[in-house]
Amino acid sequence: MKTDVCSSVASLIIIPCLNEAKHIKPLIEKLGPALDELNARIVVADGGSTDGTREIVGRISQTDPRVILLDNPRRIQSAAINLAVKTFGRDYEYLIRIDAHGDYPADYCQRLVEEAELTQADSVVVAMETIGFGIFQKATAFAQNSKLGNGGSKHREGAKGHWTDHGHHALMRVAAFETVGGYDETFSHNEDAELDYRLKKAGFGIWMTDKTRMIYYPRSTVGTLFRQYLGYGRGRAKNILKHGSMPNLRQMLPLAVVPVFIGAFLAVLSWIAVIPFSLWAVACVGYGFWMAVGQRNPYGPLAALSAMVMHFAWSAGFWMELLSFRNRKAS
């Protein structure tokens, strides 16, 4: 660990959170080495928690003034990061984004700073390793770690360090963040991809590191998973509407799920109409069984169900946003 390099620059560690009483204390404790080895401060930007999260952070800040509780009236993560940078960013070289519902290696922040200093990147992004505990959560994690659920996304699967257009947000130069205007607070989902688009357009470099990664815990029920991916789909559509950036192939395929589902109802006129939807369903289930056999994972078939929920919700959210935009434009 190059402690001298890490401590030579100031880093603002920002944790957006809302009702994370079960996770916030262990997370801050996990980040303790970063506070000791970096010239850093932790800001917990709370969106109005009512489960005791605020009280927990308040007690921690009384014993460690490097931990600060900041009110986030707008509640969403994009607003939390913007507010923290606006309030404290002038004194820091880097901002490090930490998700309250994730887990991190003890040297996570230190590795990010090292990579930023070594590569001179304006943003350092990481891969995500998805882990579950309950049956459905384990199946969802299996799906999200596979091509069936992530379409081959590099920040889901991981790859050798390389320059990229997008990845899971981890570290960013405060100057670059402020130059492009921070996160767009009209985005509740996909705000990271939207910001990456503006960073690249402005000439800033995004580095995908292979020196560290984060651990993500997926939604544990069908309903919460559906709502999450519905938001992702709407966020991707908003990104396209704002910038005209077309989705890539891995996003185009699930985009067709809702149209072929609706088209299946035309089977009352012709049985051919149900073929596209049936092919998608059979492909997902078949891939799930293939994973179960090939990787000796009993959650393969249930992972196919999780993937189908993600595909359908993402597609539904995308089309909902497009149609609502057309209606607003027409009005």
Task: Detail the topology: elements first, then pairings.
Layout: H1 3-7, E1 10-17, H2 24-30, H3 32-37, E2 39-46, H4 53-63, E3 67-71, H5 77-88, E4 94-97, E5 102-103, H6 108-119, E6 123-130, H7 135-144, H8 147-150, H9 154-157, E7 162-163, E8 168-173, H10 174-179, H11 191-201, E9 206-216, H12 222-243, H13 249-255, H14 257-264, H15 275-294, H16 300-330
Parallel strand pairs: 1-2, 1-4, 2-3, 6-9
Antiparallel strand pairs: 4-8, 5-9, 6-8, 7-9
Helix pairs in contact: 7-16, 11-12, 12-16, 14-15, 15-16
Overview of this protein structure:
By secondary structure, this protein is of the alpha/beta class. It has 16 helices and 9 strands. The protein has helices at residues 3-7, 24-30, 32-37, 53-63, 77-88, 108-119, 135-144, 147-150, 154-157, 174-179, 191-201, 222-243, 249-255, 257-264, 275-294, 300-330; strands at residues 10-17, 39-46, 67-71, 94-97, 102-103, 123-130, 162-163, 168-173, 206-216. Strands 1, 2, 3, 4, 5, 6, 7, 8 and 9 form a 9-stranded mixed β-sheet that branches. β2 (39-46), α4 (53-63) and β3 (67-71) form a beta-alpha-beta unit. α11 runs parallel beside α12 and α12 packs across α16. The protein is globular. The N and C termini lie far apart (58 Å). The model has no long low-confidence stretch (mean pLDDT 89).
